[in-house]
Amino acid sequence: MTLQIDKDIILWITSLEGRSAILDRIMIIMANDYFVPVSIALILMAIWFLGRNAAERDNYQRAVACAAISIGSACGLLLACNHIYRHPHPFEDMPQLLDTVNHIFYPIVDPGFPSNTSAITFAAATAIWQRTRKLGVLVFIPAILMPLAKLYAAVYYPSDILAGALLGILTAYFIYKIVMPVLGKPIDLAFSIFRKLCLA
Amino acid sequence: MSTLQHWEYYLFVFIAAVGVLQLVATYRQLKGLAFFQSKILSYIFSILAIGGSFGWFFGWADRIDTVMRRAALEGTQQFVYFNTAAFLALVFTLILSSLLYPFRSKAKCHQKANPQGLGALEEISYFEALKLSFKPKGRPNDTAD
Prior knowledge:
The structure holds 2 protein chains of 2 kinds. Chain A contains 10 helices and no strands. By secondary structure, chain A is mostly helical. In chain A, helix 4 packs antiparallel against helix 7 and helix 7 (116-131) packs across helix 9. Chain B is mostly helical. Chain B has helices at 6-27, 39-59, 75-104, 126-133. The N and C termini of chain B lie far apart (62 Å). The A-B interface holds A 28-29, 32-35, 37-38, 41-42, 45-46, 49-54, 57, 75, 102, 105-106, 108-109, 116, 194-200 and B 9, 12-13, 16-17, 20-21, 23-25, 27-28, 30, 33, 50, 54, 57-58, 64-65, 68-73, 75, 78, 82, 86, 115-121, 126, 129-130, 133-134.
């Protein structure tokens, strides 16, 4: 079942496609399967080494560990959600949008609800943001842009994106508040090994 | 119909990760992780590595408008390839920076407080830091002179 408001929003957004070559180009880059995921992963890698002193490094590195666990958990939850509920992509409901999809991205076959893109990027960004606001914002920028580009490409409905973002945010929140403290000892042990290897 | 080759993704991530590591090493003054003594040279190298790898991967032969318009690497594959390439980039950086360290550090090591972990790389090379880290406690510090 697709909400009418979802369809109205997607039709309005896709009406912007083709009006500005620069905007289209930016969306092509942002919607790409590789650009944002690799950028976020490289930012996480940089954050690991970015602390000014031992305390800041420990905080940043725990944020990266939290992000990694959150991304993995969000992927697992996505699979579970996809088995429970499925609904079509906008270009399946409205075949007239296929030109837009092919111009910006390509017609994906993965389930649309919740959007895996927003779940994973938001999980990473929220995990970092909980420990360091400045760097969290840095991750949130690509995390927001990629789902927006997918919306522009008519690959997902707004509700898919919102549900994915909510799933990512909640996963990262619970990982930070519950899982990380529960896994305190194994994580401390992992960090002491990394420290011994001069990598943390 | 050409597709995105796996080795192209590997190479892209590897070079970009080496660039990121050099950028952070220079910014945070982790001398034991840097390839160059000169900050300017190091920044130029980082920007070229990151910009070059992104430019090549996305811009070469209009790949973003051709082969990237269809599914190539699945999420799991991307995850495995990224981690492998990033790990190799880290190993490459640690080895090369340690091998280059004696040539570019004019002064001898002036270790102040025997820092541990990653902090040690602010003053000594990775190999030296590793050696100190695994040295039995209680033995005098013989790397300071």
